Amino acid sequence: MLHGPIAPTLLRLAWPNLLMMLAQSSTGLVETWFISRLGTDALAGAALVTPLLMLMQNMSQGAMGGGISSAIARALGGGRHDEANRLVLHAVLLNAALGLLFCGLLLAFGRPLYEAMAGSKGSGGGAIAAALAYSNVVFGGLLLMWVMNALASVVRGTGNMVVPGLVICGGALLLVPLSPCLIFGWGPFPELGIAGAGWAMLLYYGLGSLVLGWYVLSGRNPARLVWVKLERVLAQRILTVGGLAALNPLLTNGLIASTTALVGAYAGTAALAGYGTAARLEYLVIPVAFGIGAPLVAMVGANIGAGQPQRALRIALTGGAMAFAVAEAIGLAAAIWPEAWLRLFGDDGPMLAEGSAYLRTVGP
Asked: Contact 327/289 with Cβ under 8 angstroms?
């Protein structure tokens, strides 16, 4: 990371992370496909929950995760291994505290949020009931998401993208068959409806936390979890990056949530389902960019820690160009063939029309 050729090193670090993010995003898309089989109300309900769920994912993995990876990469790049070890406990506790905070807020204010987003033009009761059934399960176990992403970010900060990739891809292989089993009651599983998708997700986060926790505790990771006295300065090193980075997902998901509210208020359930399905593609592009961005954080942080700011700048510009190229290719394809995406989730005429109009405008 400190001396190798930039583009090949970045690509070598990015591919397992990119594969991991594609697997993680694909599980959400497959889950949406199964939920769409429950009807338009369920699909609209999932559209109400998605901006909040992705906000939690992006904040815990991208924003705070970036702060965690950055702090550990800077410590290791500067040869401060003991500091890197001490940062691990701070990272897990910070994310756990934020997970518990958002858990309480989202459970307490979920219904008024969904009512505001659904509006009054035909997208009321059924969609809101579905949203609550789904979100009360997922947000009730939000701590697991934040802890798993903290541990994954600790490992990524050392430059190891393979272990988090294996854990999350393995979880995706479990989640894809488990979700429909719990939604529809296949085999010995109970039929839980849209709530089944939430329970499958919690099992995924719980198992991921256990595996990554074992890896960090075992000493195999260069930054180990050790029990130390908490230090404000170490928490600040994470929050200085992670706290500021949280503005990005807050603005992105806030925009999507407010647009969801406008669509629900003025266009009805079919349009809400169409917009929510189209916006899912944006949530595929963001993790793809993150797949490049996570190793970018590790490389830039290591070089900053080693006193090589000019190399860090070249790395940042190279990775930014790669992310732009991938995102633009996906966006143009969506604008040219919008129904290829939308028909994966349904063939309702108004839903296809509204979703296509959105993708033709936003895709490029």
From this structure: yes
pLDDT in tens, 12-35: 888 877 777 777 777 777 787 888
Q: pLDDT value at position 162?
A: 86
pTM for the whole structure: 0.79
pLDDT digits 0-9 by tens, 48-62 = 888 888 889 889 988
Q: Are 202 and 53 in contact, with CB atoms under 8 Å apart?
A: no
Structure tokens at 292: 């490049």
Contacts of 59 by beta carbon, 8 Å cutoff, 6+ apart:
98, 246, 249, 250
Residue partners of 251: CB distance under 8 A and separation at least 6: none
CA-to-CA separations, 186 to 138, 173, 177, 191, 214, in angstroms, rounded: 21, 17, 10, 7, 32
Cα distance between residue 34 and residue 74, in whole Å: 43
Closest CA to 130 of 299, 273, 246, 331: 273
Which residues, other chains included, contact 3 with Cβ-Cβ below 8 Å and sequence gap of 6+?
none
Amino acid (one-letter) located at 181: C
Return the H-helix or E-strand segment holding 113: helix 81-118
In order of 62, 133, 136, 198, the CA distances from 195 in angstroms are 26, 5, 8, 5
Cβ contact 127:48 at 8 Å: yes
Cα–Cα distance for residue pair 94/347, rounded to 1 Å = 44
* 175: amino acid identity, one letter: L
Four-point Cα dihedral 15, 19, 25, 31, nearest 10: 180
Cα–Cα distances (Å) from 243 to 59, 97, 153, 246, 281, in that order, read: 9, 14, 15, 5, 26
Model pLDDT for residues 309-359, shown as the tens digit of each residue: 999 999 999 999 999 998 999 999 999 999 988 888 777 788 888 889 889
Q: Give the CA distances from residue 51 to residues 109, 175, 339, 352, in Å, rounded to whole numbers and listed in that order.
A: 15, 20, 22, 20
**Integer angstrom CA distances of residue 267 from 118, 275, 282, 358:** 10, 10, 21, 13
Answer whether 153's CB lies under 8 Å from 68's CB: yes
Amino acid at 205: Y
Share of the chain above pLDDT 90, in %: 41
**Are the beta carbons of 118 and 161 closer than 8 angstroms?**
no
